[in-house]
TrEMBL record:
<feature type="transmembrane region" description="Helical">
    <location>
        <begin position="167"/>
        <end position="191"/>
    </location>
</feature>
<feature type="transmembrane region" description="Helical">
    <location>
        <begin position="132"/>
        <end position="155"/>
    </location>
</feature>
<keyword id="KW-0472">Membrane</keyword>
<dbReference type="Pfam" id="PF07690">
    <property type="entry name" value="MFS_1"/>
</dbReference>
<feature type="transmembrane region" description="Helical">
    <location>
        <begin position="403"/>
        <end position="423"/>
    </location>
</feature>
<dbReference type="GO" id="GO:0005886">
    <property type="term" value="C:plasma membrane"/>
</dbReference>
<feature type="transmembrane region" description="Helical">
    <location>
        <begin position="197"/>
        <end position="220"/>
    </location>
</feature>
<protein>
    <submittedName>
        <fullName>MFS transporter</fullName>
    </submittedName>
</protein>
<dbReference type="InterPro" id="IPR011701">
    <property type="entry name" value="MFS"/>
</dbReference>
<feature type="transmembrane region" description="Helical">
    <location>
        <begin position="283"/>
        <end position="302"/>
    </location>
</feature>
<keyword id="KW-1133">Transmembrane helix</keyword>
<dbReference type="GO" id="GO:0022857">
    <property type="term" value="F:transmembrane transporter activity"/>
</dbReference>
<feature type="transmembrane region" description="Helical">
    <location>
        <begin position="107"/>
        <end position="126"/>
    </location>
</feature>
<keyword id="KW-0812">Transmembrane</keyword>
<dbReference type="InterPro" id="IPR036259">
    <property type="entry name" value="MFS_trans_sf"/>
</dbReference>
<feature type="transmembrane region" description="Helical">
    <location>
        <begin position="309"/>
        <end position="329"/>
    </location>
</feature>
<feature type="transmembrane region" description="Helical">
    <location>
        <begin position="42"/>
        <end position="68"/>
    </location>
</feature>
């Protein structure tokens, strides 16, 4: 599975009627039946996320391949990821005040629009794109920072403890559908065109899909603004041993270690092994078909009382499926790795996301500081991604031997085990509470 992954000028005059009345500061209330159903706003947010995911699935994987074909340099792709991570982190922190005290929906829209701008720049640069890695990483980092900060805040406000796992499961399900079909279409279009014409086509389509996603955000209600932004809010309690955010922050750093490398290395390894964009599309088709089923099952059955041992099984198997790469990095072993990852990653990602947002919703003070805690989570994740990517650059600059790469993938790919170890007491407590 291609890891995906994992937070102004007013537009109210033109579209204010669509944003009008539904304003809330707290998470959505539990529905009367207690079934954890998703309301219209949650479904619309899933639609925005689906378009954003589709556009990224169409071109996101192939941007790195495009740059690789221009200049065969692992380290260059690593630096592209580093610039993106640092810019995204800074955007999260600085934009927190805007999202907290201003119109978070505009932040969401601008994040989507800047994603379209990113692909517009790639189209304009053409084969010169490899010489403008810093610019590309900067624009994509701002886009990701604005989109995910606003998205996560709205996601928290729209969902609650009863339907959060369902929302995450549906989001994963839609992401799997996009990951299954869209990269295959991209691979087909690229291989059917001569030269770089196929890349220009899919980048253009992505630009259009991002614009459609931005338009869909106007159907989401405006969220109420309350409280002031605390620049150090998410970090105040991490020095205290009994503060839950201390452990959660360390767990998010550990989670980022894997994401920093696997976010771009898996597809690149498939291309380096096969020299075929169509093979990347097929790889995504097979692995995402498995993820489609696994996210569906996890979304339905992975309740809080099962998270403890479910997540343990997931993290162990994620690490185990890296081992086939030591037999040789080929399309076959990569497919074994990808399918295994697709089968078990929902057991890892759904609890790791839900436990953070459940903690935010645990008391009134946390709810009031939800933006600060969401920013704290993302900064911790990006710290882990940064550490992982810098380590990758340091290693790859010395040796690109398959054994060296495999050892590095196993070391950082096993970081989910550390995430489980850090969260195991919290997971165990939730299990006992749910069963009592």
């Amino acid at each position: 599975m291609l890891d995906h992954t994992k937070a102004r000028p007013s537009l109210r005059e033109g579209f204010g009627a669509r944003e009008r009345d539904a304003v809330q500061t707290r998470p959505a209330k539990k529905d009367k039946g207690g079934s954890g159903k998703l309301d219209r706003q949650a479904l619309l947010l899933l639609g925005v996320n689906a378009l954003f995911t589709c556009a990224n699935a169409l071109s996101g994987t192939f941007v790195n391949i495009y740059i690789w074909k221009i200049k065969n340099d692992y380290a260059l792709l690593g630096w592209f990821a580093v610039v993106h991570q640092l810019t995204m982190s800074l955007t999260f922190w600085l934009a927190g005040k805007w999202v907290k005290e201003g119109n978070k929906m505009n932040a969401l829209r601008i994040g989507v629009l800047l994603a379209a701008v990113f692909y517009g720049i790639v189209l304009l640069l053409g084969t010169r794109a490899a010489s403008y890695i810093a610019l590309l990483g900067f624009v994509q980092g701002i886009s990701s920072g604005l989109f995910w900060l606003a998205f996560n805040v709205v996601y928290f406000e729209i969902t609650n403890r009863d339907n959060r796992d369902r929302f995450n499961g549906v989001a994963g399900l839609l992401g799997s559908v996009a990951g299954m079909v869209v990269p295959w279409i991209s691979g087909y279009l690229i291989t059917r065109q001569s030269g770089n014409a196929g890349y220009r086509l899919i980048f253009s389509i992505s630009l259009a899909v991002f614009l459609a996603g931005a338009l869909l955000t106007f159907l989401l209600h405006k969220r109420q603004v309350d409280n002031s932004y605390d620049w150090r809010g998410g970090f105040r309690g991490i020095r205290k041993r009994d503060n839950p955010w201390r452990i959660i922050g360390l767990a998010m750093v550990a989670q980022g270690l894997r994401e920093g490398i696997f976010g771009f290395m898996v597809a690149l390894l498939v291309y380096v092994s096969t020299r075929s964009e169509m093979k990347i599309g097929n790889f995504s088709l097979y692995t995402s078909a498995v993820a489609l089923a696994s996210f569906y099952l996890a979304g339905r059955f992975l309740k809080p009382r099962y998270r403890h041992w479910g997540m343990f099984a997931g993290v162990v198997m994620l690490s185990a499926f890296i081992l086939p790469l030591f037999w040789g990095v080929s399309y076959g072993t990569l497919l074994i790795f990808g399918i295994g990852t697709a089968m078990f990653i929902p057991l890892y990602t759904i609890p790791s996301v839900s436990i953070v947002f459940d903690q935010i919703g645990s008391n009134e003070e946390s709810v009031r500081r939800r933006e600060e805690y969401i920013i704290f989570r993302e900064l911790a994740l990006n710290a882990g991604r940064f550490i992982g990517t810098i380590a990758f650059i340091a290693v790859i600059s010395r040796s690109t031997a398959p054994t060296v790469i495999n050892v590095m993938l196993l070391a950082f790919g096993s970081s989910p085990i550390l995430v489980w170890l850090l969260l195991r007491r919290r997971l165990a407590t939730e299990m006992r509470t749910a069963r009592s």
